[in-house]
From TrEMBL:
The chain crosses the membrane at residues 9-29. It comes from Orenia metallireducens. Its main location: membrane. It is found in: Cell membrane; Membrane. GO terms for biological process: cell wall organization; peptidoglycan biosynthetic process; proteolysis; regulation of cell shape. Residues 52-219 form the Penicillin-binding protein dimerisation domain. Keywords: Cell inner membrane, Cell membrane, Cell shape, Cell wall biogenesis/degradation, Hydrolase, Membrane, Peptidoglycan synthesis, Protease, Transmembrane, Transmembrane helix. One of its GO terms (cellular component) is plasma membrane. This is Penicillin-binding protein 2.
Amino acid sequence: MIDNNEKRLFPFTLILVAIFLLLIGRLYYLQIYQGQRFKELSEGNRTSLRSISAPRGRIYDKNGKVLVSNKLAYTLSIIPEDIKDLDDTLEKLNQIIGLDIELAHEKVNKATKGKTVRLKRNISHEELVLLEENKSELSGVILEEIPMREYVYDKLASHVLGYVGEISASELENLSEEGYNVGDIIGKTGLELSYEEYLRGKEGRELVEVNNIGEKIRTLGVEEPIAGYDLVLNIDAQLQESVERILAQELDLLTELAKEDEDIIEPPRGGAVIVTNPYDGSILAMASLPDYNPNLFVGGISQEDWTRLSTDPKKPLLNRAIATSAPSGSIFKIVTGVAGMEELGVRSDTEFYDPGYYKTGGVTFRNWSDVGRGKLDFLEAIAWSNNPVFFQLGHQLYKKDKTLLQDYAREFGLGEKTGIDLNNEATGLVPDPEWRKSYFKKREDKIWYPGYSINLSIGQGNLRTSPIQLVNLISAVANGGKIYQPLLTDKIVDRDGKVIKDLEPKLLNEMSLSKDTLETIRKGIKAVTTYGTARRAFEDLPITVAGKTGTAQTGQDRPNHGWFAGYVPADKPEIAIVVFIEYGTSSGNTLPIVKEIIKEYFDLELISEDEGSE
């Protein structure tokens, strides 16, 4: 017989048994039925080593103005090892924000194991929101805020500064041993390319704890990135802006004039200006038009923008200041004049006779003017850019030595690269008998006739020069015969301003010219602007200019190129200037540009106003 106490305990016993059975069932469910899932979740909380992009070095003008900097922008990246199904993940990303799946696969295949692979830079706010909403389905996908290049003044000095972009397959193949990885940013053109090893910096690393979908839980350790070194340029940003504006205004004016004048075959295609210190080769301004906005390349240029830039017949990506290769026209008469004085005994008062042409071997070489000037001395021949006088000198130099004139041209640095701290510099060409033998196939074309030297004497024929070569030539006249390596960069510094590398002026050649030769050439090109061919352009300036114009024939029924090379002030030079207008019709069209640059540099309008107020 069950007593009353046992009756009272029985319901409690049943309750305890039921609770125990529920616990057993729950344990079975968690450990057996859901065991694999929880194992995966527990293993999902692990560590991940992620790279941290280093900011590239900044670029400053000579006065400390920032021209190129960095800004933070969101980037879509993946860690391939954390992704179970790469195809599925990439397809989801494509549906969310649009992605080049083929390119993404290519990046993953070429990436170093364990490295973060960046798929899309500078994603928009809308794309960021969409990715955040879907992050639970995107294991191994991370959103990073990394430094991205910023060209502060858009197009200013674009050809000088250059642009950056993702490393290409060929670049990666050549640079993989230097620590580059797929998706890295690298300098492509301009100073960004020339000083890549200094600007790039060193990436850091971050050890983080992540959950099962790759989200960061906490940071376990950080190796901070090292920012790239900064460049301090010789460029004066204010002068650079003025030069670009003045050149653009003149090109626009000439373009409109070409529309109205039927005699002008076509408008200018572009132009270039270089302003330097003639005593050390430092470049104060370098402009090339048309130009482009390097910010277009940050984050990857669109196909539409690339097609527009790369197919434009005016070639906005071409730096005409260093990559132009064209006849110099009458600027070359400086070379001929120097050779004539040093080798033929010509002096400033040596008399010549100009009938309006020079004739030899049944061939007539004519002056740029149909009217002969009669008797004139050598100084007047320079001032009036008299072709027949220089034809005579070229022929006499040929008779003495077929390559004598070419030797002097090379002494001035023509026909070879100057070594400027930019890539893609044109070599140019000083044609001579050896070149003709190797270039032409027909026997009769291989012969170097006197006419070729005669044409060369006035900067025509097969001669090819660049603005940067001609600025060296005119600087040598100003400084006494020294040829310097042109430099855009003054020094390389770290973030604290400590000088890492000081780019000292480098003397490439020092010509052994007599005092009489230098003085005569200087007087001659000063006479060009005071009573010669360019007198009207500068007559109202309170400062004397020395310079030489050049109108270079192009052939092919196209307009002439226009050139000017000179320095200011004539008696104590501070700057050397070269202006080039591609298909500019006449050298006279360069003179308004030169005049306005001089006014800007020396603040001549301001001086005039001050004087008027006293």
